């Protein structure tokens, strides 16, 4: 479980950090005013990362940093001033980064840096370089940033690893490598994985400006020249991964329903076809269309805010009951699910169990109980297109409503309603 420690003796600065942490860090954050208090907290909890003030009343010479390093806690330092001696001292101690306390943006940068470090934990990075010394150096610095680091000694090995493991999110590749150089590697992998899936940083010992331009044109996000300072390396990597995360957030927002956070109709159509294609031979793809009964009546009786709350709660129930399924809100009070099951009868049983659960679940808004039930139409997908399956499931749903609602109907040339329990 992730947890953050922030050590700061200024009441005003700590207030700012508390406010920013509440906005950006969706985990437990502990605050300490002194070295002594920090030491007490470290004995009680295991911390993923720490943000500490370099100078504290009971630790004027950076003793708090030494405590963090001794406790093996990745640390970002806040400082009012920095000189070359302090910079080198912190690098030697193994500090991830330092942030000057000169304005509010500095504190925002520090908190966003912590947020990125938390996202980094367990994320895979691939370092491709024929020099073992160079690979070891970059691996050490990346592990400081909490990444899980993989290594490749040449471009061909790197391409093979990237092709077989989509969980790798960042590639750092040297230019001059045997078998396949960094340019060709970047070009080859971009044919398979876009900028929204994989970030690439090109690296070279040559200072030629044409190298950086060529790397960018071949698909890299950024470029570094050896030898690089640890701070530059950390900043380039962190900014590149922040950009990848932002692209992911934008893409996800475009694919999600704003109210329920389920996928939207457009994304469902895109992914459902892939789900059908990847269905195992021993399984059957089944489409289920679900509609809330008398939803207009809920809005008219309790208000639209209550209706929205019902939509959100029902979405949560769908995700809880069908965690492995593709689920979408396709419009108003209507939802769609794609199930890969052993046969059609299993899908019918699962959906009828869910229907029964909803009809007996207590929906409450403003202390008022709201009776909610759903009608469900099911269609097995064997030969017809997805568009045809949607039409057939919709016909079954229409029949379920026509037969009295709170029922499951199956389309088999014509729909057949399942008697509710």
TrEMBL record:
Reactions catalysed according to its record: 2 GTP = 3',3'-c-di-GMP + 2 diphosphate
Top-level EC class as recorded in UniProt: transferase
GO cellular component assignments: plasma membrane
Example GO biological process: cell adhesion involved in single-species biofilm formation
Start and end residues of each GGDEF domain: 283-413
Protein origin, superkingdom: Bacteria
GO MF annotation list: diguanylate cyclase activity
Names of required cofactors: Mg(2+)
Modified-residue entries (4-aspartylphosphate), positions: 53, 174
Alphabetized CDD domains for the sequence: GGDEF (cd01949), REC_1_GGDEF (cd19921), REC_2_GGDEF (cd17544)
UniProt keyword annotations, A-Z: Phosphoprotein
Domain Response regulatory: from-to ranges: 3-116, 124-241
SMART domains given in the database record: GGDEF, REC
Entry EC number(s): 2.7.7.65
Name the UniProt record assigns to this protein: diguanylate cyclase
Native species: Pseudoalteromonas ulvae
């Amino acid at each position: 479980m992730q947890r953050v420690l922030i050590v700061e003796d200024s009441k005003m600065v700590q207030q700012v950090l508390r406010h920013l942490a509440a906005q950006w860090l969706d985990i437990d954050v502990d605050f300490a005013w002194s070295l002594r208090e920090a030491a007490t907290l470290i004995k009680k909890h295991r911390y993923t990362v720490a943000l500490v003030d370099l100078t504290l009343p009971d630790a004027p010479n950076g003793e708090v940093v030494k405590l963090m390093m001794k406790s093996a806690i990745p640390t970002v330092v806040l400082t009012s001033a920095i000189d070359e001696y302090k910079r080198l001292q912190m690098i030697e101690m193994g500090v991830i980064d330092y942030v000057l306390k000169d304005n509010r943006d500095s504190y925002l940068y520090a908190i966003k840096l912590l947020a990125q470090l938390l996202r980094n934990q367990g994320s895979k990075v691939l370092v491709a370089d024929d020099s073992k010394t160079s690979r070891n150096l970059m691996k050490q610095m990346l592990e400081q940033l909490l990444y899980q680091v993989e290594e490749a000694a040449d471009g061909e090995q790197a391409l093979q690893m990237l092709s077989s493991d989509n969980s790798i999110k960042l590639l750092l590749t040297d230019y001059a490598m045997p078998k396949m150089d960094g340019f060709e590697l970047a070009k080859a992998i971009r044919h398979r994985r876009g900028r929204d899936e994989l970030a690439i940083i090109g690296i070279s010992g040559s200072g030629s400006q044409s190298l950086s331009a060529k790397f960018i044109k071949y698909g890299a996000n950024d470029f570094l020249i050896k030898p690089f300072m640890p701070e530059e390396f950390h900043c380039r990597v962190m900014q590149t991964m922040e950009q990848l995360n932002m692209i992911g957030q934008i893409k996800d927002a475009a694919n999600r329903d704003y109210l329920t956070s389920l996928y939207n109709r457009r994304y469902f159509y895109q992914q459902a076809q892939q789900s059908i294609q990847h269905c195992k031979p021993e399984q059957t793809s089944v489409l289920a269309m679900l509609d809330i009964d008398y939803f207009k009546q809920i809005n008219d009786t309790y208000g639209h805010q209550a209706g929205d709350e019902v939509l959100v709660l029902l979405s949560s129930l769908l995700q809880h009951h069908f965690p492995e399924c593709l689920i979408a809100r396709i419009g108003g009070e209507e939802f769609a699910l794609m199930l890969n099951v052993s046969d059609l009868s299993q899908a019918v049983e699962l959906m009828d169990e869910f229907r029964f659960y909803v009809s007996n679940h207590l929906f409450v808004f403003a202390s008022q109980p709201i009776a909610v039930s759903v009608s469900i139409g099911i269609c097995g997908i064997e030969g017809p297109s997805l568009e045809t399956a949607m039409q057939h499931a919709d016909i079954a749903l229409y029949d379920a409503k026509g037969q009295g609602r709170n029922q499951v109907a199956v389309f088999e040339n014509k729909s057949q309603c399942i008697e509710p329990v």
